[in-house]
Structures are given as structure tokens and as C-alpha cells.
Amino acid sequence: TFYSSYVNTTHVSKFNEFTLWHYRLGHSSMTQHVLNDIQKSNSKSTVPSNIPCEICPLAKQHKLPFSQSNTTASNPFDLIYVDIWGPNPIQAYNNVKYFLTIVDQFTRCTWIYLLQTKSEARSSIQNFFSLVATQFNTQIKTIRSDNGAEFNMPSFYASKWTLHQLTCVTTPQQNALAEHKHQHILNIARALKFQSGLPMRY
């Protein structure tokens, strides 16, 4: 139509050939090979060294990498990470839908508790504290978790002289040790399930 032709003509006249193709290709990074091909279609154009674009920084910005934590453990159970995975979209045969992961920062030893509900995490954590005191003859100094209500036990932590560190909201990187352990566990579980041919509920 006349209107669309008018708009296209106006749009083309506003930008040079390289900028126009940059827009048409969804603001993708254009290699020298692509720039040369565009130049061949319009011999009057000179291949630019770069294509200034105000849109790209707005559309492609992302978080900077998180620096390494300066909180390190010198002994086992100086710092443990806890996190819950779930719910599993397919309920397991024993009604398990979640699992609690506990990772010791110093040794990287990991404990997993299967849960039917998130609320069971409280008793599992308390049992883990008893396990550490009885079997390893030591106390947990610091526990790090997200802001989930199931980890909110100030009276219990105070009775054990344990510091509770909370991660910032929507910042799972601060609890990365437990988050990465989830990915590792699930990768292994999926591989074994596919190998065995068992139903999803297992």
C-alpha cells in the first residue's frame, strides 16, 4: 500500500544500509563476512568498523558475575548450605515431592532428606543438628539458606549457638553451593532413570 511504502521509504532514509540490516536482524552481532555481503549490495557504502546502537545496551544487559564469597570455612560444619528442591510435578510412589539438600562447605559432603511437604524441613534440619553433635562431636557454627519460612527457626538456632545467614531476595548465587548440588543430583537421577526404564514416579 501507499502508506506502507511511505513508511519504508522514510525508515530507509533515516538509517544507513548497515544500521538498517542490524535492526532487521534483531540487533544481532554482525560479523565482517555479513558486513562485506551488505557492502556488495550497495557499492556506494563503506564498511564501518562498528555500528553504534543505543538499543543493544538496553536489550542485552545482564548481571555482572558475582565475586567469590569471602566467607570460608576452616573446619567441617563451620558453614553449611541448605536448600529445598521441588515440588516435583510427578508425585513419587512414596508421596515424596521435595528433597532437602545440606552441603558442608569445607568438605563438600552432602546429605539429602526426602520430604512429602516443605514443612518437614524443620524436623529434618533439627535431626541433622543432632546427627552432627552425636556422630561428629561438634556443633554447626553457621547455616545459610534462602528466606523460606521452613528455615525460620530463630529460637532453635539460638539454643545451638548457630548463626543463621539469609541470602538476599532473588539472589540464589549467594546459596550457589546448594543450588549447584541440586543440578548435579537431578542430572544423575535422570540419567539413572532413563537407563533403568523405570516410570517417572520413581
Automatic annotation (TrEMBL):
Residue ranges constituting the Integrase catalytic domain according to the UniProt record: 72-202
GO biological process terms, semicolon-separated: DNA integration
Pfam family for this entry, one: rve
One MF term in the entry's GO annotations: nucleic acid binding
Superkingdom, natural source: Eukaryota
Entries under InterPro entries matching the protein: GAG-pre-integrase_dom, Integrase_cat-core, Retrotran_Ty1/copia-like, RNaseH-like_sf, RNaseH_sf
Name of this chain's protein: Integrase catalytic domain-containing protein
